[in-house]
Structures
1.
Amino acid sequence: MAKSDDCVHILQGLLVFGNVVIGMCGIALTAECIYFVSNPHGLYPLLKATENDINAAAWIGIFVGLALFALSILGIIAVIKASRTLLLVYIILMLITFAFEMASCITAATHRDSLTPSVFLKQMLERYQKSEPANNSNNEFTKTWDELMLQNHCCGVLGPSDWQEYTSAFRLTHNDADYPWPRKCCVLDAQGLPVSLDGCKLGVPGYYNSNGCYDAISGPVNTHAWGVAWFGFAILCWTFCVLLGTMFYWSGIEY
Amino acid sequence: LPAPSARLPYVPHLPPMALLGKVTATTFALEGPRCVFDGHADASDAVWLAVAFANASATFRNPRSRADVPRYKQLPTARSYMTLETAAAAYSCSAPSPPVLRVGSDTACRDQGRQDPCNGPLPSPGPYRVKFLLMGCRGPKAETRWSEPILLRRAVSPGTIDPVPTRHGSDVVVIASILASLGAVLATAVLGALGAKLRGSLCHQDLGTDAFTRRSYRTHHIPPALPQPVPPGCRCSPPGLCRSSPQPPAPC
């Protein structure tokens, strides 16, 4: 029937369009996750120290994106050829990919939630300037914090008073009278020396950095986590509709 | 007998401006006693700062001469010491005096054990009381009142920080619940379609077509045929069980 033929063609067209969108989103997801894994803000040592691998979600995202792209091509071929076997394979593989992407989204969202200021504060107090020459990861940790404080003109997680309110590994090697907070918290001149050391030690406004670094950390981490979680969620909603349409199409094809 | 020292009404206090390092664990800052000693001080006099534990300030006796000044090293035993010896001219009204004095800033003299007045870091959180003392060649000439007790900061261990978040944000709950329901719907749909197809393929003998729509047999102009026998085992009720096309059910 002409009308049914039209319906079939429309359904095929919609499914092909749906698969094209899935393919493009898969490539975009892969690209985004590769960007996050490549550690653009240099914050990975901090995140690694919190024993909370937010990168796991990004790694899953890379492979899921590639799988979505490959499956979308398979889907387009299967829809155009109206082959039951290919469509069945497509549906089953898509369901597996759906499950993995679900895991990635939920992992990214949960891990992001657990990165509170307290987590970073505790890590910083326990590991910054910890003097264990044999342990390379502590040196890397200290270097990351120094870079962070220098580039963002910030100090500590919530402010320089972090160093006053709590004892720390830093306090064990640097006495309180000379170093109420690390030298990197002072406003530095072009040579990297404090503009006024006494002003910095006293806490005179203008000679030390009074903001905490938590905003500088949580900004990129939030972008990372929500980029993986919400984009993945959007892809999954679209994939859900395409899969339902494909199953309807599949069930209508006779041998 | 030496003349008793004049008691000035000035009370030493912390600087009023906002300074984050006003009070740390081993140091504190004081506002400089500007104009306080004018009229009592000669050019050769010196202003000292007497620091005592708050409960030992009542028993503090002004030293008779510079030689009797209690030193920094005696703080644990004598419960007081004097430091920050400065020429009285530095605090006069006409001179630009330092706005803030920092007690405890010199870590070098603590270690080297020099006998000069040492402004070393304070060994315990206190509380401490301070007063300024104007010393001349013949002994103390004037003193201010004792300050309010100054308590230094006490740091706690980072083990007291609890890094566990109290509850998950609503975002996680939304994502997890919606995704779980989508997954469940998909799984059900797949199982349902597979089940329907399995049951349908048990009913069908052969239809011969492989296209999606060509299933209606009723538009040909042919003489009415004998009714087709119903295949055994296929009841085709309720209607539509053997087919999934939306057209009205043909007889089996």
2.
Amino acid sequence: MAQPLNFVLHVPETPEDHGQEPSPYDESDVHDSFHQLIQEQSRWVAEEGLELQERERGAGAPQTTGSGSRIPPGPEDAGAPSTATLRILASMPSRTIGRSRGAIISQYYNRTVQLRRRVSRPELRGVGRSARPSLRLYDLELDPAALEEEEKRLLLVKELQGLTVAQRDHMLRGMPLGLAEKRCLRSVPVGLGRLQTHCRGGGGLGGGYPLGGVRSIPGPTLMPPVSPERRAGPQGGSGGAGLAGVGSSPAVAGSETPASCNSSLTRPCALPPGGPCGREAESLPYNMPLAYLFTVGVAFFITCITLVYSMSRSFGESYRVGSASGVHAVTVFCSWDHKVTQRRASRLQCDNIRTHLKELLAERQRRQGPRSACGRLRHVAVLGLVWLLCLGTTVGCTMAVYAFSELMIKSPVSADQEGALLALPVVVCLLNLGAPYLFRCLAALERQDSPVLEVYLAICRNLIFKMAILGILCYHWLGRRVGTLKDQCWENFVGQELYRLTVLDFIFVLLDTLFGELVWRLISEKKLKRREKPEFDIAGNVLELIYGQTLTWLGVLFCPLLPAVQIIKLLLIFYVKKTSLMANCQAPRRPWLASHMSTVFVSLLCFPSFLGAAVFLCYAVWQVKPSSTCGPFRTLDTMYEAGKVWVRRLEAAGPRVSWLPWVHRYLVENTFPIYLVSALLLAVIYLNIQVVKGQRRVICLLKEQISNEGEDKVFLINRLHSVYERKERSRAGRSQETERLVDHPDAW
Amino acid sequence: MGSSGSRLSKELLAEYQDLTFLTKQEILLAHRRFCELLPPEHRSVEESLQIRVSLEQILSLPELKANPFKERICRVFSTSPTRDSLSFEDFLDLLSVFSDTATPDIKSHYAFRIFDFDDDGTLNREDLSHLVNCLTGQGEDTRLSASEMKQLIDNILEESDIDRDGTINLSEFQHVISRSPDFARKHDPLFSCSAPLRLSCDRSHSVCPSKHPVREAFHC
């Protein structure tokens, strides 16, 4: 808008014009407080019988009034804005957008157009009277707002008729208008006049920012599957009924058919005649070892895709580009739960919110308050000491497990002493149970400022501990047990060990729930006479779930029924924990940033847990020699060789499947395509990072620009105040002058 | 339950279902509860759609009694010129916005209007301090101190007032609510998760299905 700087607004202020002027307070929804203030001022003006003067647009000097007037009763309060200023302020688009019917209709008109025509914004050239006030010359005196709103309403109704019934109803449901108005919009327009009589017409501005864009409601979060799916696979060997898992269960795939299939890999056609051998040239025999590997591989691949997808969605939702934390605003705006209807619960909620707000304020104070160098040094020293102690505990426990496992190797277990096999899992589970409590005690020494950081540190330490223990166990199985169990089935043994660990973990979780929560509550209520129930430790419980899932992933190759056991275990744990939670625990005092924590947990599930299991299985498949007395891989050097042998067989099978060996030789065995693909992916990731950085910078610039516009707005409002203040003062002065002249006519 | 005279017509019911987020059962239940507020001689269907119920009667509903925002809620949804009475359609609007299936957009829109105590289209400092006082409790001893209140409002304005004019308008409100990660998942300013203001079939029972504070805290 190219207006000269010293423009003067042409705002007629005669009292009679109140009814005809297009003011926002004609619309009953809007600006009640302004309405009152304006009424008071107008009443005062009318009582005094002052005639407000008119100013020509562009004129510099005020003109003299004509009529006589009484002296205005008292000095005007310098700070109180005048009627006209209030009127202008009340009609600012940013204040009317949520309230004025016209603004809402205009906003939803644009959304409907976007929905119908799939354009990002309606063409401004086409719309004669644009909705944006800055584009049509915002003319207060000539603003026929009534006509504008009716036009917009008709346009909206026409657009709505163009949508399907479902879309139209969806759009109408989401509009913040009353039911009666929505009914009007749904009806078919028969003419302007008819529409006016049916619906509530009237004043109100057609202004307001037409916000485009239908915000998409986020879809359901994809939960990673608990256990990888399995197609029809070979029978599980080690999932025995007993706790020790050792029994008369057959060795992994020890039946005849796989053996004959196996032997068919090395010797052509050992099968009885009439079988598939005769049709060898046309069909390929069922290769059981490869099918087994493929099943596990595909299951892991699907799990990996699901996990990565879920993690990236969580990341996308939690860490949006340019989003501020806004924790105070969100707490104040979103924390009241209107579900409560009891007065006592309502008071409890008030107490919780008050405590939370005070904690937030205190935390912000502490963060802003500068700490002395000595205090910081002390804090760092304490932190270092606690970390040292925790890591020391971890290393100590790892060495203990290693030593115990070596002891178990040295003292072989006879067939009737199978209970002794439970010793190692029991030791591991006991350590897993005790370490979190120890870490919690050590963390109490630290006295962290921020509770979120405390939680993250606790998660880190517990995770490092659990992964270290699992790591040493994996080394024990693949590194040592394979060597010592030369003539027996080491795969069986590993599968059974993992099964024992799973079941014992379940038992210890139940014991922990019993003692940690129930007994603690009873003790604290009866003996210590405290009414405080123990807090439910969310982080600890989630880490236990992650640990259990890691065990399942580790064992799925050797004990295919382990996922079924895991499902049953999870169902039982869920119900036990739920009962215990309701009966024994209180909610954590510190409210959870639910989405950030979910992101962290899904990332933990993906990175150390799933990746570790995948690495373990890759090593087992690629590098370790399968046992020679059992299993479908018994004739091979590594499990992976099953694929190679099959490819060689395919090559001999004929030209019809020659593309498979080609793919295998040039894309899988050859390292160059893999390097190329990795390099491309890295380049794509780098480009995306740069794009995100650029977006962040743009958001910062836009925020600065918006705050500059805000300054402009404040400047203009102050100018308005001062302009009208000057006008009032000069009017008051002139009326005083006139008064004096009237009273003392012979002063001339 | 109820005579045939107090049933809404099928067309009207279908229309209400199309235009609000409520199901048929909820609309019928709402109609029944609304009629119970009317004097016995005015309980026919036609009258129930025309007549308006005063604010005091709506505020006496058990679902709203303990809500510190009850008056603002009723005023926002009232379409009468003096904003002190609700018709049946206003009542349906109220229940629709507070239901499970309402979009976050419309919820944040109405939440803004409820929080705007002086109805000037923005949340200024007085609005915010009034809001915080409602949240922390009505007693004198439960309120925040003056310095805490000032600091809290300063922090809120710093986080959400993008154009630095000292007030939060609707766009800024919706921006801060929707950009915050917790909102995008489950929370919204009007009722997380389960349906608030779900009317009970029997007035003597309380609406809130669980009085367990743990369950309420874990409603995520």
